[in-house]
């Protein structure tokens, strides 16, 4: 069999761009929706919360059959930061 071009070029060529173009179209539509809904803008409260306001955060405690690891600290620190 004789090829007009080296074989490695055939292995690297794209089969088609339909899927890529379709996904890019969807991405642009979703980004337009996000921009219209201001999804990336900060939505901070206008006034500060009172110090008497209560907040509940739950943290699943580790099992007794395993050692503590950095993941436990990470989960607990999220509760601490939010409160």
From TrEMBL:
<dbReference type="InterPro" id="IPR004493">
    <property type="entry name" value="Leu-tRNA-synth_Ia_arc/euk"/>
</dbReference>
<keyword id="KW-0547">Nucleotide-binding</keyword>
<dbReference type="InterPro" id="IPR001412">
    <property type="entry name" value="aa-tRNA-synth_I_CS"/>
</dbReference>
<feature type="domain" description="Aminoacyl-tRNA synthetase class Ia">
    <location>
        <begin position="30"/>
        <end position="76"/>
    </location>
</feature>
<dbReference type="GO" id="GO:0006429">
    <property type="term" value="P:leucyl-tRNA aminoacylation"/>
</dbReference>
<dbReference type="GO" id="GO:0004823">
    <property type="term" value="F:leucine-tRNA ligase activity"/>
</dbReference>
<dbReference type="GO" id="GO:0005524">
    <property type="term" value="F:ATP binding"/>
</dbReference>
<keyword id="KW-0648">Protein biosynthesis</keyword>
<keyword id="KW-0436">Ligase</keyword>
<protein>
    <recommendedName>
        <fullName>Aminoacyl-tRNA synthetase class Ia domain-containing protein</fullName>
    </recommendedName>
</protein>
<comment type="similarity">
    <text>Belongs to the class-I aminoacyl-tRNA synthetase family.</text>
</comment>
<dbReference type="Pfam" id="PF00133">
    <property type="entry name" value="tRNA-synt_1"/>
</dbReference>
<keyword id="KW-0067">ATP-binding</keyword>
<dbReference type="InterPro" id="IPR002300">
    <property type="entry name" value="aa-tRNA-synth_Ia"/>
</dbReference>
<keyword id="KW-0030">Aminoacyl-tRNA synthetase</keyword>
């Amino acid at each position: 069999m004789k090829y007009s071009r080296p074989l490695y070029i055939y292995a690297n060529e794209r089969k088609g761009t339909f899927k890529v173009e379709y996904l890019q179209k969807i991405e642009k539509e979703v980004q337009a929706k996000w921009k219209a809904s201001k999804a990336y803008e900060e939505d901070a409260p206008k006034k500060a919360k009172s110090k008497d306001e209560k907040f509940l955060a739950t943290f699943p405690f580790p099992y007794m059959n395993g050692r503590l690891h950095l993941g436990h600290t990470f989960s607990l620190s999220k509760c601490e930061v939010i409160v």
